[in-house]
Every structure is written in structure tokens, then in C-alpha cells.
Amino acid sequence: MKRKFLFFSQIFFLAVIVLVFSCKNANNSKEESETTDSTAVVADQIKVNYYKIPCPSELFWFIKDFGASYSKKILNSTENASNYNTNIKKALNFGIYGSDLFYSSVFKQNQETMKYYKQVKKLGSELNIVEGFDENIAKRVDNNLNNSDSLFTITSEANSNAIAYLEGLGKSNILPYITLGGWVESVFIASKQVKKFNPKDPIVSIVIDQSYLLENIIGLFGSVEQSPEIVEYSQKLKELQTVYYNADDLITKKQYDNIVMKINEMRDNLIK
Fold it and tell me: By mean pLDDT, which of 2-16, 157-171, 189-203, 246-260 is the weakest?
């Protein structure tokens, strides 16, 4: 894609430290065999890479400034959570529900914010992400249901603590799934704000300027152990990247629709 990315120069990025671990040697094979799925990581050497990952709340602040509105019907229903039975699905939807949480918080929908906070907390507990979702944070959320600004600050703090906790434990292969879920949901929500295509619409620009961020997420997937699931999602991301790259500097409605359709397909796959 040839267009210059004007939007990403303004967006706030959360720098995610990706910890890439080598495999344990043969005398740890028994311990490795006891892991229940590919999101468990055991290692003794660390390589550190840096990727720029978008903070969902910042994207929502931008679209709000450009006239976006709140619609809870476009969010992933918390009723779907019972369908997520693997750590990969839980991590993907931890990210998705996290974006729904931020969207609700930015638009001062306090009851919805609380509902999605509880769901993120539940999935976090199932993924053993205890930092950021302890009883102290839960109590602060509950005590600030009528204070949107405080609620936003508290939930942002919880999210940052959870990411830092994952990094500290070396659960690097959970981070790509969380990041993917959060990013896809953010772009999906932004795309739903476009009622009529106009290449000069700033929200259209936000959607199409995601190519740079997509490249970082692909890099994030490439930085961890290449399990079959990681490879599968990497391929899906590269297919989406191709659709982005096929767009001209002055994007057409058809090209924009192709990007949105691909985002929708990926999102449908993540939440089912």
C-alpha cells in the first residue's frame, strides 16, 4: 500500500516487550510433555524484541473526536464466553473483550464497562493472568461506576499491569493472540462507524492506516515459537496484509469494502 500513514504518526503506541524463549533441553522433556496446550511456555533463555502495538483506547478517543457514537450491539456478547474452551480462544477474546471494555469506557458507558471488566477479569483468571485484576482493582471499579474518568483510568491501569505481568512471566506466546484480538476488534468497531464511504472521512483513514500496525502484529507472531496455531494465524494476517497492500493511495470504495470484509471475516472467526 503506497499511501502515507498520517494517522499512525499521531496514535499512541504501547511498547510491548516480547520475550522469545528457547526450548528446554532434553532433561526437561517430561515437564514439557505435561503442558496442556501450545500457549504454555517453558524456557531458560530470553531474547528481547520490541514491537509497537496500538493501545485500543487511543483509537477510540480518535474516532470519538471524529463523531463516532456508541453501539453495544456491535460488541462481542459476554454470553459467547462459555464457547471459549482453549487457551488460544481465551487469549484472543481476552483481547477482544478488552477492546470492548475500552470502547465502553471511552464513551462513558459505565454499566457496560463494568460488565466487560468482569468478563476480562474472568478470562484473565482462566489464563492465570492475576496481575491487574485483583480484588483491590475490582473494588475500585465497583466504587467508581458513576465516575467515567476514574473508571477509564482504573481499567487502563489494569490492562497495563496484565500485559506487564505476562511479559514478566515470559508468557510471550499468549501476547500475540491477545494483541490480535484487541486490534481486530478495535478496527472492526471503527469500521462500523462509517455509514457512507468517503475517502476523505478521517475514520476511513484510520481504518486503512492500520497496515503499519498490522505489520507489527505479524512481526509479533513471527517472534514466538512457531506452533501450528501461530503459523495458521500468521497466514491469515498476511492474507489481510495483501488486501491492504492492494489499495491505492486514493482508496476506492471497492478497495475499502474488501479491507472491511476481510476484517469482518477474521473477527467472526475469532469470536465463534
Answer: 2-16
Cβ atoms within 10 A of the Cβ of 159, count?
A: 24
User: For residue 20, what is its C-alpha cell?
Assistant: 522469545
CA dist 219 → 215, 223, 250 (Å): 6, 6, 27
Q: Which sequence spans correspond to the domains of the chain?
A: 13-271
Strand partners, 15: 52
Q: What is the pLDDT of residue 97?
A: 94
Mean pLDDT of 206-214: 90
C-beta of residue 76 within 8 angstroms of C-beta of residue 185: yes
Rounded CA separation 249/179 (Å)? 27
Helices marked H in the chain — which ranges?
29-33, 56-65, 87-106, 110-126, 135-143, 148-169, 175-191, 202-208, 211-222, 228-245, 253-271
SS3 170: coil
